[in-house]
Amino acid sequence: MRALIYKGVQKVELQEIPMPVCGPDDVIVRNVRAGICGTDVSAYLLGGLYGGIFPESELGHEFGHEMVGFIHETGGNVAALEKGMRVFVNPLTRIPDPSQACMANAFSEYVLVQKAQIDHNIYILPDSLSFDDAVLIEPFSVGTHGKNTAQTKPEDKVIIYGAGTIGLCALSALIAQGNTKIVVVDIDDKRLETVKVLGGIGFNPKSGELYPFLKEHLGEITNIYRTPVIDVDVVIDCAGVPSIPVDFLNYSKPGAKLSCVGMHKKELMLDFSIIMSKQNIILGSRGYTREDIREVIHNLAGKKSSVYKIITHIFRMEEGTEAFLTASDPSQAIKVILDLE
Q1: Which three-class secondary structure state does DSSP give residue 335?
Q2: Strand bridging mode 201-203 / 182-185
Q3: How many CB atoms are located within 10 Å of the residue 265 CB?
Q4: Where are the alpha helices (DSSP H) in 208-253?
Q5: In terms of DSSP H, where are the helices of 36-163?
Q6: Do 312 and 332 contact (CB within 8 A), yes or no?
Q7: Which of 9, 99, 161, 206 has a CB 3.0–4.6 Å from the CB of 239, allowing a cystine?
Q8: What is the CA radius of gyration of the chain?
């Protein structure tokens, strides 16, 4: 079979490698679409340490973790799954070791799913859900988990920091559940155009001060200290910028929640007296749950958002290097997809 192999910094190669062997409790999936994630790009640009992707030898390593396809082969003990079924593969549970999720072989024509189980590591796709849309299940689940971690309700007012793939997926998840007051903050005007297309309100901090903009679109209230604050219920950080938690504590109303999805690479100093007095809640959001995935599949199949519009480029396997170069340039791309058919 063919596979796009990670060979190190700024080096991927399309190679012929052996087919995986299907055990009695396993299935083999024929990958049809795969998405390039930010972790894949980090490994490509900076090395495996930054994306959890490591070339085991001079032969490199299979990688990628956003994939959909159909079942090619089933083990003798697998009764509930049949050849030809269209499926999403959960990279976190594809094998027993979740630390290997970023090397889940999405950029290979075939992938082994060990101890296959429906709604655990294999999710059956509805007939109404195309592969072109289903390829977004994994990042859409990450964004959905970000709003679900904070138990966001449809009537809540929300701020999202970051209009990359995950920020736009969080926006789409909120739109799908009925939220209408959503401000997305980013410094890229092109991405903010996508925010508008998806149904959010975009703001570029380079164009002016953030607080007056939030006041205009979300409203302002006075807290217990007679200090004006923004009437925001949930803030979702998909950017990982150090100033975001500090700003959240300064302008958010009592009881507001901060869901941290983006990776923070530096230690932060926070004033816990503010957290205590305003009873703010800061939450970490990592990965996704079975419930998040089910919600995403339901929303995609029901066309409850326009999240598919974040896909900016589609490449063939033979164009792997060009695909990664494009995905590495945020001025060109938001979401890059590989067509493995």
Answers
A1: strand
A2: parallel
A3: 8
A4: 210-218, 243-251
A5: 38-46, 131-134, 137-149
A6: yes
A7: 161
A8: 21
**What letter represents residue 40's amino acid?**
D
Closest CA to 54 of 110, 106, 100, 109: 100
| Alpha-carbon distances of 144 from 244, 286, 288, 290, 296, rounded to whole Å | 20, 11, 8, 11, 7
The number of angstroms, rounded, from the C-alpha of 204 to the middle of its chain's C-alpha atoms is 22
pTM above 0.70, yes or no: yes
pLDDT string in tens for the chain (341-residue length): 999 999 889 999 999 999 999 999 999 999 999 999 999 999 999 988 777 887 665 446 899 999 999 999 999 999 999 999 999 999 999 998 888 888 999 999 999 999 999 999 999 999 999 999 999 999 999 999 999 999 999 999 999 999 999 999 999 999 999 999 999 999 999 999 999 999 999 999 999 999 999 999 999 998 766 789 999 999 999 999 999 999 999 999 999 999 999 998 888 899 999 999 899 999 999 999 999 999 999 999 999 999 999 999 999 999 999 999 999 999 999 999 999 99
